[in-house]
Description:
Blueprint: E1 11-14, E2 19-21, E3 35-39, E4 53-55, E5 64-67, E6 71-74, E7 85-87, E8 95-98, E9 102-107, H1 112-118, H2 122-130, H3 144-148, E10 150-153, H4 156-201, E11 209-211, E12 219-221, E13 225-228, H5 229-232, E14 233-236, E15 251-256, E16 272-276, H6 278-284, E17 291-294, E18 296-297, E19 305-307, E20 316-317, E21 321-326, H7 331-338, H8 341-349, E22 352-354, E23 357-359, H9 362-366, E24 369-372, H10 375-418, H11 424-427
Parallel strand pairs: 3-8, 15-20
Antiparallel strand pairs: 1-10, 2-9, 3-4, 5-8, 6-7, 6-9, 11-12, 13-24, 14-21, 15-16, 17-19, 17-21, 18-23, 22-23
Helix pairs in contact: 4-10
Amino acid sequence: MKMLPTHHEWRSIPLRYICRLNPAVTFEEFEEDDELTFLPMDRVKNGYFIPNVDKFSKYAPSYNAFEEGDIVLAKVTPCFENGNIAIAESLAGGKGFGSSELFVVRPTKSDRKFLFYYFQSSAFKQEGQASMTGAGGLKRVSPDLLRQHHLPLPNEDTQCAIAAYLDRETARIDALVAAKGKWLELLVEKRRALISHAVTRGLNPNAPMRDSGVPWLGEVPAHWEVTRLKMVAEVRGGLTIGKDYGSEKLIDIPYLRVANVQDGYLDLSTVTTVSVPYSETQRYVLEIGDVLMNEGGDADKLGRGCVWRGEISPCLHQNHVFSVRPHNIDSDWLSLWTSSESAKSYFESNAKQSTNLASISATNLKELPILLPPVMEQHDIVSRVGNDLDNLDKISSRAHYTIALLKERRAALISAAVTGQIDIGEAA
């Protein structure tokens, strides 16, 4: 256990002495149609919550209730580790209810903001993680943590001073992170614009133009061909996972899921295997040069893809990932085209939409309009765009690194302040 600060006003005290865990909340004053704040887990972020209301009639005992000023704290992994915590403020009706995966903490003998910051400290988080029970993504912090945890607590004036100091300093850091985040958004927009211009206009600004015949494509270089995906490549469906093969002899083979196929690159940090007959491996095995395209999922996943370069051999693909095998087009050009705004617009307008999800059929994918420059020009554009994208990626990596450092600084500052390792008087 870490030593307490030597300041005489700090003392170790059980958390349960200064707050109440999941306190009772009465709703007698509300009618069924009254609106109250409702917080699903995804509405509680790092230090704030996104307002949401629902009718009181939907309230159920399985939800956790809270009042104005209560602290709501995620108890399930990875939300707990990510610091999903907020102070319930400006609630509709002054009361609310939320996910059962939230702890509700009501400060009684401590400054609310100080306790809010303390729950974000490494000391509290480490003990919370150690108390978790369950398996995999269902691990939860034990309620005993809040009942048994001891924290270093200064007098109330010092608590308020620390909270005010952290309000100022975290706001400053958060502003820097937000500015870097805006910069990253601009880089994403620049990336899209760069790709879209290159694959619809080419590298020669003086090239003669003509109407493409596709309304949303407009004019294109006069010497480029306009065709359809089915004319230049074979669209191949993938393996259905969970199929019963009876008594056939099975072998274990790696396969790609939607999560592995990102926009312009592969994420192979987690690759799973499937047990299939040898005949299935021949039917769905990937070949170098195949262009992978996602059937759907969230809107940002629709049609996204990249070139398969034999990173794993052999490797299959599931039925939510199309394998497009070019025969009259460069693989890298085709992959670049599918990352353009023109292709994404086609995917979105021809997708089957459902709640928060979208998917495109093989039939519609085959009809994707494709611009086809001469082969050497395809190579030149891919090379030029590749160099430009590499430069953007380097800038983006530096921005991500800076954000990571700022977040580390924020977490370390909070941990040091709420455990008395910073003299707030001098720091101020």
